[in-house]
Design brief:
Shape: elongated
Largest sheet: 8 strands, antiparallel
Strand content: 35-45%
Order of helices and strands: EEHEEHHEEHEEEE
Number of helices: 4
Structural class: mainly beta
Length: 240
């Protein structure tokens, strides 16, 4: 189930120059995802499982809900996923006049969902959720297709027609069109095969520890390493 909502205001700054500012939101509920039903439960002295009071790798088989079934082998596709999109959109458009028109738009947004590590876990239920299968908080984060900043500029310029004769016949009626897109890189979830996961789920999220803190994360770099996409296309249509 998808709910969409928006609110926009427009104003004409000048003749043929339109400014639009708006908020766009969307909420997704009951999205498909895949989850392991038999991951090992968490045992404690106040809540023992079959007499087990600690959580270790060696007693995983004793803490699973269904004995004899590996913790990551009983998989279910369920409709428990959620997503949220919130975006601020600003656009400036110049209507065709004096042979020129353009549209500049900027979007500042954030997309969050319950299975952002793998888009298929949310949209198609074809991949197992990472880490603790019973922790919605661990699954909640930026979607793998989230783009925080996105700027698009497009324009068309109708070239002046040469004065009469052969030049007008050959060069008349041409226009120049260009599109430029600049956007943030997509979100990245680092997964790792974790043989020491006490829940028995081998695919886990990489975690920070005492030797590797947030201060060690490298965020700078070249345009290529930061996955900022810039594209430009020039189109010369045939004379009419």
């Amino acid at each position: 189930m998808i709910q969409q909502f928006s609110l926009n205001v427009q104003t004409e700054l000048h003749r043929d120059l339109l400014l639009e500012i708006g908020y766009v939101g969307a909420h997704g509920a009951h999205l498909l995802r895949q989850r392991s039903l038999n991951q090992a439960l968490s045992a404690s002295t106040t809540d023992p499982i079959r007499g087990v009071t600690t959580n270790t790798i060696t007693n995983i088989a004793s803490r699973v809900p269904i004995l004899g079934v590996p913790p990551d082998s009983l998989q279910e596709v369920e409709t428990e996923g959620n997503s949220w999109y919130n975006g601020l959109e600003v656009s400036l458009a110049k209507r065709l006049g004096d042979g020129l028109q353009f549209l500049a738009s900027y979007t500042f947004s954030k997309t969050l969902d319950t299975d952002g590590a793998d888009i298929n876990s949310t949209s198609a239920g074809t991949a197992l959720t990472l880490g603790d299968q019973n922790s919605p908080r661990q699954r909640w984060g930026r979607a793998s297709f989230d783009r925080t900043h996105r700027f698009v500029f497009s324009g068309i310029w109708t070239l002046p027609n040469p004065a009469g004769g052969l030049f007008r016949t050959i060069l008349g009626g041409w226009s120049l069109a260009a599109i430029t897109t600049i956007q943030s890189g997509s979100a990245l979830t680092t997964a790792v095969t974790n043989s020491t996961n006490v829940f028995g789920i081998s695919e886990d999220r990489a975690q920070l520890n005492g030797k590797c803190s947030k201060n060690h994360l490298v965020k700078g770099g070249t345009v290529e390493s930061n996955s900022v996409a810039i594209s430009m296309h020039l189109v010369l249509p045939a004379p009419q």
